Amino acid sequence: MTTTRRSSRSLHTISVRRRPYVALVNAHDSNTSNTREALVTPSKGRRIRLLKVRVIQEQADGRHLWELYFGTGTDITTSPEKAVDILDVPGLGEASTRTFLRDEGPRGLRDEVLSGRWLGTAPTTVHKIIVEYTVEP
Protein backbone atom coordinates (compact mmCIF):
# COMPACT_ATOMS: atom_id res chain seq x y z
CA MET A 1 0.00 0.00 0.00
CA THR A 2 1.45 3.37 -0.98
CA THR A 3 0.29 6.72 0.30
CA THR A 4 1.25 10.06 -1.23
CA ARG A 5 1.51 13.13 0.95
CA ARG A 6 2.14 16.68 -0.16
CA SER A 7 4.00 19.00 2.16
CA SER A 8 4.71 22.68 1.63
CA ARG A 9 8.11 21.89 0.13
CA SER A 10 7.87 18.65 -1.82
CA LEU A 11 5.92 15.53 -2.63
CA HIS A 12 6.60 12.46 -0.41
CA THR A 13 5.73 8.84 -1.07
CA ILE A 14 5.34 6.73 2.04
CA SER A 15 5.20 2.96 1.93
CA VAL A 16 2.87 1.54 4.60
CA ARG A 17 3.43 -2.05 5.71
CA ARG A 18 0.58 -3.86 7.42
CA ARG A 19 1.40 -6.18 10.23
CA PRO A 20 1.16 -9.85 9.19
CA TYR A 21 -2.10 -11.41 10.30
CA VAL A 22 -1.95 -15.05 11.36
CA ALA A 23 -4.86 -16.58 13.24
CA LEU A 24 -3.84 -19.30 15.70
CA VAL A 25 -5.99 -22.02 17.29
CA ASN A 26 -5.48 -23.76 20.62
CA ALA A 27 -7.64 -26.74 21.63
CA HIS A 28 -7.72 -27.40 25.35
CA ASP A 29 -9.40 -29.93 27.66
CA SER A 30 -11.00 -28.19 30.63
CA ASN A 31 -10.47 -29.20 34.22
CA THR A 32 -13.33 -30.45 36.41
CA SER A 33 -12.80 -28.02 39.27
CA ASN A 34 -13.38 -24.31 39.89
CA THR A 35 -9.68 -23.40 39.81
CA ARG A 36 -8.28 -21.04 37.17
CA GLU A 37 -6.57 -22.54 34.16
CA ALA A 38 -4.35 -20.75 31.65
CA LEU A 39 -5.72 -21.30 28.15
CA VAL A 40 -3.13 -19.37 26.11
CA THR A 41 0.23 -17.95 27.17
CA PRO A 42 1.87 -15.46 24.79
CA SER A 43 5.56 -15.45 23.89
CA LYS A 44 7.70 -13.06 25.95
CA GLY A 45 6.88 -9.44 25.15
CA ARG A 46 3.78 -10.32 23.07
CA ARG A 47 0.05 -9.75 23.53
CA ILE A 48 -2.93 -11.98 22.82
CA ARG A 49 -5.84 -10.61 20.80
CA LEU A 50 -8.92 -12.78 21.03
CA LEU A 51 -10.91 -13.77 17.92
CA LYS A 52 -13.32 -16.37 19.34
CA VAL A 53 -13.66 -18.96 22.11
CA ARG A 54 -15.89 -22.04 21.96
CA VAL A 55 -16.70 -24.36 24.86
CA ILE A 56 -18.07 -27.75 23.79
CA GLN A 57 -19.83 -30.19 26.11
CA GLU A 58 -19.79 -33.62 24.48
CA GLN A 59 -21.61 -35.54 27.25
CA ALA A 60 -24.77 -34.48 29.05
CA ASP A 61 -23.63 -32.98 32.35
CA GLY A 62 -26.09 -30.15 33.02
CA ARG A 63 -25.79 -26.44 32.40
CA HIS A 64 -22.54 -24.69 33.42
CA LEU A 65 -21.06 -21.19 33.31
CA TRP A 66 -17.50 -20.57 32.05
CA GLU A 67 -15.66 -17.33 32.96
CA LEU A 68 -13.16 -16.02 30.42
CA TYR A 69 -10.70 -13.24 31.34
CA PHE A 70 -7.13 -11.98 30.96
CA GLY A 71 -4.60 -12.30 33.78
CA THR A 72 -3.88 -14.66 36.62
CA GLY A 73 -6.60 -13.60 39.06
CA THR A 74 -8.66 -16.31 40.72
CA ASP A 75 -11.86 -15.14 38.97
CA ILE A 76 -13.50 -12.27 37.08
CA THR A 77 -14.38 -10.34 40.24
CA THR A 78 -10.67 -9.98 41.09
CA SER A 79 -10.18 -7.65 38.07
CA PRO A 80 -13.51 -6.92 36.35
CA GLU A 81 -11.80 -4.67 33.76
CA LYS A 82 -10.01 -7.76 32.38
CA ALA A 83 -13.23 -9.75 31.87
CA VAL A 84 -13.97 -11.00 28.36
CA ASP A 85 -17.20 -13.01 28.71
CA ILE A 86 -19.20 -15.52 30.76
CA LEU A 87 -20.38 -18.37 28.55
CA ASP A 88 -23.57 -20.27 29.36
CA VAL A 89 -22.82 -23.86 28.28
CA PRO A 90 -26.03 -25.90 27.76
CA GLY A 91 -26.54 -29.46 29.05
CA LEU A 92 -25.38 -31.04 25.79
CA GLY A 93 -23.98 -28.65 23.21
CA GLU A 94 -21.72 -25.64 22.96
CA ALA A 95 -21.43 -21.93 23.64
CA SER A 96 -19.12 -19.35 22.10
CA THR A 97 -18.15 -15.72 22.30
CA ARG A 98 -18.90 -13.50 19.35
CA THR A 99 -16.37 -13.57 16.53
CA PHE A 100 -14.23 -10.44 16.54
CA LEU A 101 -12.88 -8.83 13.36
CA ARG A 102 -9.21 -8.08 12.74
CA ASP A 103 -7.79 -5.68 15.36
CA GLU A 104 -11.16 -5.43 17.18
CA GLY A 105 -11.15 -8.27 19.72
CA PRO A 106 -10.22 -7.95 23.39
CA ARG A 107 -6.45 -7.66 23.84
CA GLY A 108 -4.41 -8.53 26.89
CA LEU A 109 -1.37 -6.69 28.18
CA ARG A 110 2.16 -7.80 27.28
CA ASP A 111 2.92 -11.26 28.69
CA GLU A 112 -0.66 -11.58 30.06
CA VAL A 113 -2.29 -15.01 29.83
CA LEU A 114 -5.86 -15.77 28.77
CA SER A 115 -7.54 -17.60 31.64
CA GLY A 116 -10.80 -19.39 32.30
CA ARG A 117 -12.62 -21.15 35.11
CA TRP A 118 -15.97 -22.72 35.90
CA LEU A 119 -18.36 -20.46 37.81
CA GLY A 120 -20.53 -22.12 40.44
CA THR A 121 -20.72 -25.90 40.23
CA ALA A 122 -17.92 -27.41 38.17
CA PRO A 123 -18.78 -30.13 35.64
CA THR A 124 -17.95 -33.77 36.23
CA THR A 125 -16.91 -34.34 32.60
CA VAL A 126 -14.13 -32.77 30.56
CA HIS A 127 -15.16 -30.10 28.05
CA LYS A 128 -13.31 -28.99 24.91
CA ILE A 129 -12.25 -25.35 24.82
CA ILE A 130 -11.17 -23.99 21.46
CA VAL A 131 -9.45 -20.60 21.44
CA GLU A 132 -8.89 -18.66 18.21
CA TYR A 133 -6.50 -15.73 18.63
CA THR A 134 -3.64 -13.70 17.21
CA VAL A 135 -0.35 -12.67 18.80
CA GLU A 136 0.73 -9.03 18.54
CA PRO A 137 3.93 -7.17 19.45
What keyword list fits this structure?
0% helix; 137 residues; mainly beta; elongated; 4-stranded antiparallel β-sheet
Structure description:
- Strands 3-10-5-8 form a 4-stranded antiparallel beta sheet, with no helix packed on it. Strands 4-9-6-7 form a 4-stranded antiparallel beta sheet, with no helix packed on it. A two-stranded antiparallel ribbon has the order 1-2.
- 0% of the residues lie in helices and 47% in strands.
- The mean pLDDT is 88.
- It has strands at 2-6, 11-15, 24-29, 37-40, 47-57, 64-70, 83-89, 93-96, 114-119, 128-136.
- With 137 residues, it is an all-beta fold.
**What gross morphology would you assign?**
elongated
- What is the averaged pLDDT score? 88
pLDDT < 50 stretches: none
Strand arrangement within the widest β-sheet reads 3-10-5-8
Write the layout of secondary structure elements.
Elements: E1 2-6, E2 11-15, E3 24-29, E4 37-40, E5 47-57, E6 64-70, E7 83-89, E8 93-96, E9 114-119, E10 128-136
Antiparallel strand pairs: 1-2, 3-10, 4-9, 5-8, 5-10, 6-7, 6-9
In short:
This protein has no helices and ten strands.
